[in-house]
Amino acid sequence: MARLFRANSYAEQVHATNHLRTLGGIAKTADNLDAAIAGETHEVTEMYDVYTVVAGHQGEKAALMMFNAALKAEVVHAALYKRAKETVAAGKDLALPEVHVCALCGFTMEGPPPDTCPVCNAPKDKFVKF
Fold it and tell me: What is the pLDDT of residues 8-20, one digit of tens each?
């Protein structure tokens, strides 16, 4: 069953990319990075703040934990996009070491994974390498 959901998730990603391209939403790298930085910054400075307030008000402890974990990942995403933008502005390509993402909470980091996720305490083997 998991294979079905992974395959369909990938297909939806293809659809979304095609829709975005058709609507003119895919531009030059620097412009794409500006849009990515703006999106991540919005999530960090506004969106998750509102989500956590609502989840706390409604007593949704699991949602509150998930939103807080996602917020920590979004901070890293924004920083990575900003570094990439600086590199592109200098006429270079961003050289990243391997990137690891915790499959349980989405925490994202450069380099080898830690023994446990700093956000959700998942073991090292739960990190996916990119």
Answer: 999 999 999 999 9
